[in-house]
Amino acid sequence: MFSCWKALIFLSITIGSSNAWSADSIRLQRDDGKSLSAQVYMPTKECKGIAIISHGAGGSEQGYGYLARFMAAQNYLTVVPGHQESGMKALMQYMHRKNLLSGLAQLVTDKAAYAGRLMDINAARQWAAPRCGGKASVLLGHSMGAATTMIVAGAENKMDIDDKARQRLLKNTDFDRYIALSPQGVGAIFPEHAWKNIQQPVLIMTGTRDEALGGGSWKTRTEAFADMPAGCKWLGVIDGATHMNFAGRDLTPQTTTLITKTIADFLQASPDKGCAAAPAGAGMMLSTK
Known about the structure:
Blueprint (H helix, E strand, L loop, with lengths): L3 H4 L16 E6 L5 E7 L7 E6 L10 H9 L2 E6 L6 H10 L2 H8 L3 H18 L7 E7 L1 H10 L9 H8 L6 E5 L20 E8 L13 H5 L5 E10 L10 H16 L15 E5 L1
Parallel strand pairs: 3-4, 3-5, 5-6, 6-7, 7-8
Antiparallel strand pairs: 1-2, 2-4, 8-9
């Protein structure tokens, strides 16, 4: 059994540092009438498109600053919505009834929490779209946010969020690119072959110290890549990277560069030209199909 300190590595809470791309705090309105907080990072040049970052369980809109600033530097209007049904307050409520690991496991399989996340993403997209002239769109998520990203991309799941539910909650379910950092494999969230019908471009990233919840091997996080059909699918595995590195905690310059450069290369790769990848940087294995 994991100790409490080790279990805490699965909480996706980060503190962004100051940078030229500073965040603006806004309130968004969901279709169900609820409002939510979000952080917005504006591009300084002509807007290429919108990017939405979905945080992990127990996280907030205050996190993932390194990714949000990077996406803004790539000229994407970037929004990090706060997922109130699966943020820290929600996690604390689960923890009052369960221990940390059990509470977290229950939260990441809560259908209502995912429904809220999809409505949050829809609200963020509705706010951002008229403020950006570019038409590109990217959905990026970490941990529970990675599960959310794969569900939006079309992954079958054990919460019964199917195509009808996605259309009802998201309205426009199509993003040009999907990026899943520390996604889950077969288990409590996804059944076997959950990803077999995903046709859109997808980048998955994990690390050799990115253990799954409950102590499973990091290799389970590669199962989605193995299951998806070929066609602009990338898998990056960073030697020594932990779960919380992808959330922005304890990042080294090398790991930061590997994450952001791979994302930049993926966003620039052309499906019309086979989505060819640039050579992987030292310390990372990159697979494509």
